[in-house]
Specification:
This protein is of the alpha/beta class and about 260 residues long. It has helices at about 30-45, 70-75, 85-95, 115-120, 150-155, 160-165, 175-180, 190-205, 205-220, 225-240, 245-255, and strands at about 1-5, 5-10, 15-20, 50-55, 60-65, 105, 110, 125-130, 130-135, 170, 185. A 7-stranded mixed β-sheet has the order 1-2-3-4-6-8-11, sandwiched between helices. A 4-stranded mixed β-sheet has the order 5-7-9-10. The chain is globular, with a radius of gyration of 19 Å. GO terms for molecular function: lyase activity. InterPro entries: ClpP/crotonase-like_dom_sf (IPR029045), Enoyl-CoA_hyd/isom_CS (IPR018376), Enoyl-CoA_hydra/iso (IPR001753), Enoyl-CoA_hydra_C (IPR014748). One of its GO terms (biological process) is fatty acid beta-oxidation.
Length: about 260
């Protein structure tokens, strides 16, 4: 295990687990934490031993969003618009959204503002029954600034996105599941095992093919069907030339399960 004052980080059996570790601040994101997360993502992206990333929080919150104490201090010093939180958060959101390996948000409690946005950047969102979601922006007389206005219409539709953003209500786990904000809800005590099972399945899979698939899904919304089919063909050729591609074909011939190494 490695650690930063505000983060815990472990890698085991191909699964990297990053835990936001500011429970007294409900895991709020100050600039040092944002930068430390970016550094960890870069490290895990470059490490072939990491095949899945899990992001969760310590204590009773997943993440309360921006650190309002840091925000208030910046306002007192007259640098609220220039102290760099938004720019640093944008780097983080782009890094996590563009992470080539599968990502899982294990939402163990309340996810507010940029904390909710952090979960939206992940491929899979599993929530504890006690999880709660709140946009938080309009309640502070702000508009979204960490990706919610991009992710939410794509995940839950335009009208539901407006309900969450405009009315700034607190959505429970069941409503999040019903609208598609999360893909699974577990009893609180079952969340770790459910996340571990999903992460293990993904870690045993063809990591290179997952990466190509993520890019196809991400970029496909900007293409016509004909353009997407061309992109799929190009990605398929790369997958077929990968070591996992060769292993999958050999395993099919030999009528056995493939053993993927993630390359």
């Amino acid at each position: 295990m490695t650690s930063h004052p505000t983060l815990l980080d472990t890698v085991e059996a191909g699964i990297a687990r990053i835990t936001l570790n500011r429970p007294e601040q409900r895991n709020a994101l100050d600039i040092p934490t944002l930068k430390a997360l970016i550094d960890l993502l870069d490290r895990h992206a470059a490490d072939p031993a990491v095949r899945v990333l899990v992001l969760t929080g310590s204590g009773r919150s997943f993440c309360a969003g921006a650190d309002l104490a840091e925000w208030a201090d910046a306002e007192r010093r007259g640098i609220l618009e220039s102290y760099g939180w938004t720019e640093t958060a944008h780097v983080l959101m782009n890094r996590l959204h563009g992470f080539a390996k599968p990502t899982i948000a294990a939402i163990n409690g309340t996810a507010v503002g940029a904390g909710m946005d952090l979960s939206l950047c992940c491929d899979f969102r599993l929530a504890a029954q006690s999880a709660r979601f709140k946009a938080g922006y309009t309640g502070m007389a702000y508009s979204p600034d960490a990706g919610a206005s991009w992710h939410l219409p794509r995940l839950i539709g335009t009208e539901q996105a407006k309900r969450l953003l405009f009315l700034d209500g607190l959505w429970g786990a069941d409503r999040a599941l019903a609208t598609g904000l999360v893909s699974e809800v577990c009893a609180d005590e079952q969340l770790p095992s459910a996340v571990a099972e999903l992460a293990a399945r993904l870690a045993a899979g063809p990591t290179f093919a997952f990466a190509q698939t993520k890019v196809l899904i991400r970029d496909g919304v900007q293409r016509s069907l004909a353009e997407q089919l061309q992109a799929e063909q190009a990605a398929g050729l790369l997958c077929g030339r990968s070591r996992d591609g060769a292993e999958a074909l050999q395993a099919a011939v030999e009528k056995r399960l493939p053993h993927f190494i993630g390359q």
